[in-house]
Amino acid sequence: MSWLFLTLPAASIGAALVELDDTCIGQWMLSRPIIVGPLFGAVLGSVWSGVAFGALFEAFSCEHSPVGGFLSFNGCVSAVCAVLLSAGPAALPWPAAFPAALGIGLFHARWMEPFVRGLRASIIQEMESDLMGTSPIPWQRHLARSLLPHAAATAALVYCACAAGSLLGWAWGVFPEILKDGLSRSFGWSLWLGWALLLDSLWRRS
Q: Which long-range CB contacts under 8 A does 43-50 form with residues at least 24 apart?
């Protein structure tokens, strides 16, 4: 129970606050998977899973990918969810946690974030009218209205997705062995593919 009512809510809120660094505030690179993965892994007592998932999602989020083009997903959310799913009570094996977390990151980037950005766009007109007026501009209120919905949506997504870890663990248990073997082999190859993507990105920038 402490996982659902203490650890997971705290981790979800922490992930949402760190994720704001991606595009909203700061941009100090704290939200990069290679940073946030080991950080959450260390907090949850699973450093190596954090290092592995952080490095893997960092490699897959390279801007210049020679395999299928750039994969648009939220690397910060994916890395955190992968660590939570594998280090939490569900204890999902890495070959199962990786595609599940990748799907969560894709959902965040392609559907949830555009929806929240659309809601946030309504603030622009109000800010324009404030700029045209003579009264002091309530920057703090505008900032809160802009960032809090984004952070709340991210925290809710991380919490709900990782709270369903027990269901994913059950699904993994009833998977046919041939599918488990396929996912395990795919995950093993993804490690090599991730290194190749990272080396290709570094080569292009050198």
A: 43/11, 44/7, 44/11, 44/83, 44/84, 44/87, 44/88, 45/87, 46/83, 46/86, 46/87, 49/82, 49/83, 49/86, 49/87, 49/94, 50/79, 50/83
pTM of the model: 0.86
* Of 151, 153, 144, 108, the residue nearest 123 (C-alpha): 144
Contact in structure between 157 and 13 (CB atoms under 8 Å):
no
pLDDT digits (tens, 9 = 90+) for 112-171: 988 888 877 777 777 777 778 777 877 788 788 888 989 999 999 999 999 998 888 888
Q: Which DSSP state fits 155?
A: H
* Parent domain of 72: 2-205
Q: Look at the chain and report how many structural domains it folds into.
A: 1
Helix axes of 165-174 and 94-107: crossing angle, nearest 10 degrees: 130
What CA–CA distance (Å, rounded) separates 39 from 55? 12
Q: Rounded CA gap, 10 and 18, in Å?
A: 12
Question: For the segment 165-201, what is each residue's pLDDT rounded down to a tens digit?
Answer: 888 888 888 888 888 898 888 888 777 777 666 666 6
- Nearest Cα residue to 98 out of 85, 109, 108, 110: 85
Pick from 85, 136, 78: which is nearest to 105 by CA?
78
